[in-house]
Design the sequence.
């Protein structure tokens, strides 16, 4: 009889210990999830620059559609080569730099345009350069980029 009582106590204690360990594991997992939620996403220099470029280029689009040809573009745009990208976003910096340089060339073409149609064409070339690069590196903004194009009246 004593053996049965001891055996019963051991089985009961093992359930208690097993449940206690499970609870500790669950608490640990909940704490890990909460700490992940508290981590703030910080945008990279390049992401911030590209958001600025997007906003500035929407203003530029309106100017061109109104027949205004800008004489310059923000100097910050030249930082596209040196701005630090999000970790793991750009694996081939040589290819990225080719797109970045083409973007700057297209921006210069906009300022060098002699008429509204030429400015629209140069602007659309700039937009297509952005879309081509984002097709490779970061597809998220592609729908917004494609909407930036200007219709060219013949």
Sequence:
């Amino acid at each position: 009889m004593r053996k049965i009582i001891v055996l019963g106590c051991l089985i009961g204690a093992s359930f208690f210990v097993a449940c206690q360990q499970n609870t500790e594991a669950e608490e640990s997992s909940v704490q890990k999830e909460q700490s992940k939620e508290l981590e703030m996403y910080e945008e990279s220099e390049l992401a911030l620059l590209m958001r600025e470029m997007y906003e500035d280029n929407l203003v530029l689009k309106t100017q061109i559609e109104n027949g205004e040809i800008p004489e310059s573009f923000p100097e910050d745009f030249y930082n596209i080569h040196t701005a630090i990208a999000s970790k793991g976003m750009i694996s081939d910096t040589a290819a990225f730099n080719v797109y970045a340089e083409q973007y700057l060339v297209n921006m210069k073409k906009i300022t060098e345009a002699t008429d509204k149609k030429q400015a629209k064409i140069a602007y659309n070339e700039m937009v297509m350069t952005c879309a081509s690069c984002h097709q490779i590196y970061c597809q998220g903004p592609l729908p917004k980029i494609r909407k930036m194009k200007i219709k060219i009246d013949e």
Remarks:
- The chain has five helices and no strands.
- The CA atoms of residues 60 and 89 lie 27 Å apart.
